[in-house]
Amino acid sequence: MSQFSSKLSLRQHDFVLFAIMGILAGCGLIYEYLLSHYAGRILGAVEQVIFAMIGVMIVAMGLGAFAARIFKSYFSAFVWLEVSVALIGVSSVLILATTTALANILPQILMETFLLPPDLIPRGGMILWAHKIASVMPYVVGFILGFFIGMEIPLIASIRETLYGERVEHNAGSVYGADYIGAGIGAGIWVFFMLSLPPTTAAVITASVNLLMGLLFYSMYRKRIRFGVWVISAHLLVAGVVTTIAINGIDWDNAMEDLLYKDSVIFSYNTEYQHVTITERVMDPAKPKIVSMFINGRSQFASNDEIIYHAMLVAPVMHASARHDNILIIGGGDGLALRDVLRWQPQSVDLIDIDAAIVEFFTTPRIEKGKVINQALLDLNQHAFSDPRVQTHFGDAFLKVDELIQQQRLYDVIIVDLPDPSHPDLNKLYSARFYAKLKTLLTGDGAMVVQSTSPYHAKNTFLSIGKTVHYAGFMHVEQYHHNVPSFGEWGWTIATKNGVSARARLAQKDHLEVNDGWSTRGVLLAAFEFNQHFFDRLENIKVNRINNQAAYQYHKADWEKQQGIYIIDK
After folding, report:
1. pLDDT value, residue 125
2. Is residue 187 classed exposed, middle or buried when 0-12, 13-18 and 19+ CB atoms within 10 A define those classes?
3. How far apart are alpha carbons 7 and 5 in whole angstroms?
4. Which of 85, 113, 155, 165 has the most C-beta neighbours closer than 10 Å?
């Protein structure tokens, strides 16, 4: 035992060891959440990836706990373990960013190497394997990191018994207690502090703590640790790596992310709920730049054709409603649907969005390096959120709607502009229960519209949304579609509580009441037409409920089929 550590009582040793164990447990949980969060960002299907990653790391930790028995020198093993975890943890985000970026730019590299024409993009063979490797790499990194983290508890337990010189009663329970408490604290740190940080910054902070705990452990037990010079050298080397990533990591990660988009990335940031990327492209120097927005890598709009999507979302429902005094928008944090609604001169508009940071970005000028980086977006929504008639509400729409019902609010028009039901949390906002709540808020001669994904690429999801709205009790439910170049063929569901259908109300009008720059009476009426047999299988489509998650399951299967991830029965 070192001269320093010999002055400590066994209780003091326990205090230090339990403190180290608790802190490292917090680091381990932060690594789990960090890798899960980042993998969900680059792979999509956020919840599915998060649950799978946590499962992989837990299994790996179990295997690591078994593997820890191979070490005979517990003290040396522990200090080398921490420097290894720090190295893997701090580089994990950049490893994933690099493999994903390389998989995405490989087709371009091959095209330029072999002088292939632009319409002949390589898609098979090596390209498919590159994407498979990139999609598996998060789990590989998670498994390796989890394996090493899993060794910490048995090594600390063995170190305690070595210090006591005998088998310690309740040893495992005491170590696990420190581990569980530390993991809980780590979870809190992640949720309330690190979730909105750049991933590389979160990795640097966590790895730095691993290094500090390793050095603290070494300072206490250096007489029991072999090759001390090498241990210190390794810590200094990894500290250099951590410092380098701390200085350059954000830029490197952004550079890798830029390769994922066809356009130049002008801004990228994390909110508490999602990762936002803004890109721009110059198509014609004489025209404004095309600005696009992506959330977790998924396209939300492009400035050159968002007018089509928002006109088709807003114009039919506003013309179908008898009045336009009080409007409710659910989602739409970019303010573009709100912009179109304000053209109708409503008395009030309530907008519910879960992410205050998104709304803030589309409300207030954001200055960086002397330039308003979001000026194009503020111009695009025409500063809609600054209108005094607009009241924003932040939180889960499923719960916020209950507050409006309790206040006995009524709306002439309800516009549901949410992302597709691509994971379970969104599924409830496409459920029969949610639509029944909205029916309570709608006036008798009002109308409601719901963004309903693509009727071409996700037909079952599209049909399920329409069937679910009808099940919620609306008298007339219809669906319509239109081509939006950035998305392809896209669809919406429109409903009325009483009287005639929305389509019939539109047909009764001689002309459109408001000019949105896109819609015509003919375009809106034609959108209700579908090809023969489109609705033939409707009776086989499930109504989406909270407990069956039909919309989420349909959406997952529909888009996987588009990517070729399914088996054809012969």
Report:
1. 64
2. middle
3. 5
4. 85
Please check whether residue 203 is in contact with residue 145, taking contact to mean a CB–CB distance below 8 angstroms: no
Quote the CA–CA distance of 554 and 464 in Å, as a whole number. Answer: 8
List the one residue out of 275, 298, 277 whose CA is nearest residue 422.
298
Question: Hunting for tokens 């499923």 — which residue is that?
Answer: 398
Q: Are 274 and 295 in contact (CB under 8 A)?
A: yes
Dihedral over Cα of 506, 512, 514, 516: its sign: positive
Q: In the structure encoding, which two tokens stand for residue 234, read together?
A: 């390794």
> Per-residue pLDDT averaged across 50-72, rounded?
92
Beta bridge partners of 525: none
Using a pLDDT cut of 70, give the percent of the chain over it: 89
What is the spatial distance between Cα 7 and Cα 13, in angstroms, rounded to a whole number?
Answer: 10
The span from the CA of 126 to the CA of 182, in Å, is 44
User: In the numeric block, which tokens belong to residue 7?
Assistant: 């002055």
Residues 352 and 405 sit within 8 Å (Cβ to Cβ): no
Nearest C-alpha neighbor of 545 from the set 380, 432, 462, 458: 432
Q: Which of 14, 350, 353, 417 is catalytic?
A: 417
Residues contacting residue 45 through CB under 8 Å, at least 6 positions apart: 422, 423, 556
Q: Residue 379 — very low, low, confident or very high, per pLDDT cuts 50/70/90?
A: very high
For 175-187, what is the mean pLDDT? 92
The closest alpha carbon to 116, from 132, 127, 103, belongs to 127
pLDDT tens digits, one per residue of 34-57? 998 888 766 655 667 778 888 999
What is the spatial order of strands in the sheet that 390-394 belongs to? 390-394, 348-353, 326-331, 411-417, 442-451, 488-496, 476-484
The arithmetic mean of pLDDT across residues 498-510, rounded, is 94
Instruction: Return the sign of the alpha-carbon dihedral for residues 71, 74, 76, 78.
Output: positive
Return the number of other C-beta atoms located less than 10 Å from residue 327's C-beta. Answer: 28
| Burial class of residue 192 (count of CB atoms within 10 Å of its CB; 0-12, 13-18, 19+) | exposed
386 token code pair: 């600054």
569 is catalytic: no
Q: Which of 396, 58, 447, 2 is nearest to 218 (CA)?
A: 2
Each residue's pLDDT tens digit, 273-324? 777 888 888 777 777 788 988 887 778 899 999 999 999 999 999 999 999 9
- Among the listed residues 158, 140, 143, 139, the one whose alpha carbon sits nearest the alpha carbon of residue 68: 158
Number of other residues whose CB lies within 10 A of the CB of residue 134: 20
Distances (CA, A) of 91 to 136, 178, 271, 500: 17, 27, 22, 61
pLDDT digits (tens, 9 = 90+) for 17-34: 999 999 999 999 999 999
Write down the H helix ranges in 150-198. 152-164, 171-189
Q: Where do we find the tokens 């709607």?
A: 401
User: Given this model, what pLDDT does residue 5 score?
Assistant: 46
Look at residue 566 in the predicted model and tell me its pLDDT: 39
If pLDDT is split at 50, 70 and 90, which confidence band does 4 have? Answer: very low
For the chain, give the mean pLDDT: 88
- Spatial separation of the C-alpha atoms in residues 317 and 450, rounded to whole Å: 10
